[in-house]
Amino acid sequence: MSWLKEVIGTEKAIIAMCHLDPLPGDPYFVKGMGHAIDMARKDLLALQNGGVDAVMFSNEFSLPYMTSVDTITVACMARIIGELKSDIKIPFGVNVLWDAEKSLDLAVATDAKFVREIFTGAYASDFGVWNTNVGRTIRHARNIGGGYVKLMFNIVPEAAKYLAERSIADVAKTTVFNNRPDAVCVSGITAGAETDAQVLKLVKDAIPDTVVLANTGVRYENVEQQLAVADGAVVGTTFKEDGIFENHVDEARVRRFMEKVKSLRTNF
User: Rounded mean pLDDT of the chain?
Assistant: First the structure.
């Protein structure tokens, strides 16, 4: 039994993304904080009513992303989660794209149970040369009282490639040996892009005792294949109207997907 059962309530867990609208300071922020709060509440309720196991709040529309996020972004995310707190009925996590320390700050401020981030590695990315400092980040978590927060390490960052040529199996093995992540996430090239099933299997085979999550592109059509390998999935785009990234959540799509997942769990 993994920590997914303890924290989220089930193995083969589905963690749904609640993508926040553009926030103050973001290039595409135009509709005000009230609108951002209303849309976040609408999506949260649709996800919960559709039966997801957990939810993760992210500033998905803070495009283009920063690797050192401004304070205003974290403040606005904390306000939104605070406004929604009485509506949140399932375990939740946070992801401040792409700033690991800010994600941890937000998790502690809002009592989030888990964080997904790029904690390790150095990359050539759409956001420039991207470096990390996992030793500092983990110490920061302990210093702010966030030792309880489950850390989900994304080892295949979207829109980025390792600067060193390393196999994904080796990356997975050394990430676990050196950093003891609670989970490892395997992604496609962007949000909504299918996680390569072969890559997913290479990672799971390399670290069989660590939770491995399919991080992008899990859909109704491929969820059985993905969960046959992965211990769970982070799901966002497929839950939206017409399965389009820019849209808001469609409760009927969520319910249909989750009904299939719940029927599959008895087979794994």
Answer: 96
Structural domain total, the chain = 1
Give the pLDDT band of residue 1 (cuts 50, 70, 90): confident
Strands 211-214 and 232-235: parallel
Please state the pTM of the whole predicted model: 0.97
Two tokens, residue 89: 């009925």
Q: Which domain holds residue 58?
A: 3-267
Pairing relationship of beta strands 160-162 and 232-235 according to DSSP bridges? unpaired
The 3-state DSSP class for residue 122 equals coil
Both structure tokens of 14: 């589905």
Q: How far is Cα 111 from Cα 115, in angstroms, rounded to an integer?
A: 11
Alpha-carbon torsion 140, 143, 146, 151, what sign?
positive
Q: Are 99 and 58 in contact (CB under 8 A)?
A: no
Residue with tokens 């941890």: 104
Phi, psi of 218 (to 5 degrees): -80, 125
With beta carbons less than 8 A apart as the criterion, state whether 7 and 14 touch.
no
CATH number at residue 144: 3.20.20.390
